[in-house]
Amino acid sequence: MELQGKIIAVMPEKSGVSARGEWKAQDYVVETHDAYPKKMVFSVFGADRISRFNIQAGQEVTVSFDIDAHEYQGRWFNSIRAFDVRLVDPATVGAQPGVVPGSAFGPAPEAPAQPAAQPAAAADDKVDDLPF
Hints:
Mean pLDDT: 83
Number of helices: 1
Structural class: mainly beta
Low-confidence stretches: none
Shape: extended
CATH superfamily of the domain at 2-92: Nucleic acid-binding proteins
Largest sheet: 6 strands, antiparallel
CATH class of the domain at 2-92: Mainly Beta
Distance between the termini: 55 Å
Helix content: under 10%
Radius of gyration: 25 Å
Order of helices and strands: EEEEHEE
């Protein structure tokens, strides 16, 4: 999935040691530009990705992410992990007509053309669609 918006918060980096070795993760908050803006917290896992994406507050980005959930002591928690973060030129935000930045659905489809009205049948025409 993808979401476009502005980075409004950069959370402190977290790190630890697991059976596989040392790990690092960092959370960010992105806000969409919809009529009713939405906010989403997403995580970037791995020191290499954190440094490669180099996400800063105030940047306009497109976030590609996966959603997953896990259970802990009878409660469920969502996890939103970014696998790609690309910078967006702020001048192009909202420049595409019909596309709402941050929308996962793209432009709205156009309404199909209405068929031409059929002329009313004359009284002497034997149009009968009754089954008996």
